[in-house]
Specification:
The chain is 22% helix and 39% strand. The protein has helices spanning 2-13, 132-140, 184-208; strands spanning 17-22, 26-32, 41-43, 47-52, 57-65, 74-86, 93-99, 114-118, 126-130, 145-152, 158-162, 171-177. The chain is elongated, with a radius of gyration of 25 Å. Bound molecules: calcium ion (4 copies).
Length: 209
């Protein structure tokens, strides 16, 4: 009987990893039309860019709904896979993360809460960036949206990529393990099994006397 109980508990608490590929709920470009550091215009567009010129600055923003990942989950790995269409050959293009709300507004341009890294390498490719620690912190805080800002620091070069263009989306790929939450029926089964176990032990004791 002991070995069945062991098996039962093993099944009850065994955990399995799951991988989800998310596409942005929304993507857009935020523009500062007079370079005063306050962003003025929101463009909700699929193809997004980050650039600076003598007269204006653009920053790309995109937000993912991660509410399907329950608090207590362990993030085994997470990457943002950016589908570039233009990658400058010099200078930094910085990726920042923040806890979003599923809507893009001008304030999102300066949400440089978590610096993730420079994502430009001078080659137009699929830029894969590790964001495991950032996603874990959002899940731990029960934040429903994982959001990102791209801030290109260089004059007269453009970093451009697909935000939500169908089939070419910039994906957030998360491998996670959810905490074990037994179903109510599992508890009933456990109770029946315990009673059965107790009865058979009681019988054995009587027989031995
Ligand atoms: Ca402005
Ligand atoms: Ca937002
Ligand atoms: Ca690149
Ligand atoms: Ca910039």
């Amino acid at each position: 009987m002991k070995k069945y109980l062991f098996l039962f508990f093993f099944l009850l608490f065994s955990l399995s990893a799951e991988v989800i590929n998310l596409i942005p709920s929304v993507s857009g470009v935020l523009q500062d039309v007079d370079l005063d550091g306050n962003f003025d215009i929101v463009f909700i567009v699929d193809l997004i860019d980050s650039q600076e010129s003598a007269g204006l600055e653009n920053r790309a923003v995109f937000e993912y709904d991660i509410s399907s990942i329950v608090p207590g989950s362990i993030i085994n790995s997470a990457t943002v896979n950016i589908n570039e269409t233009s990658d400058p050959v010099f200078g930094n293009t910085n990726l920042f993360g923040y806890a979003g709300d599923g809507v893009i507004d001008v304030g999102d341009a300066v949400r440089t809460d978590a610096f993730i890294g420079n994502i430009a390498n001078g080659t137009v490719d699929l830029q894969i960036t590790d964001v495991t620690a950032f996603i874990q912190s959002l899940v731990d805080n029960n934040d429903p949206f994982a959001s990102f800002v791209v801030d290109n620091e260089n004059l007269d070069v453009i970093y451009q990529f697909q935000g939500t263009t169908a089939g070419l989306e910039t994906e957030l790929v998360i491998d996670f393990t959810a905490p074990a939450v037994p179903e109510p029926s599992t508890y009933i089964l456990l109770l029946i099994l315990s009673i059965f176990c107790f009865r058979s032990r009681f019988k054995n004791n009587k027989t031995n006397k």
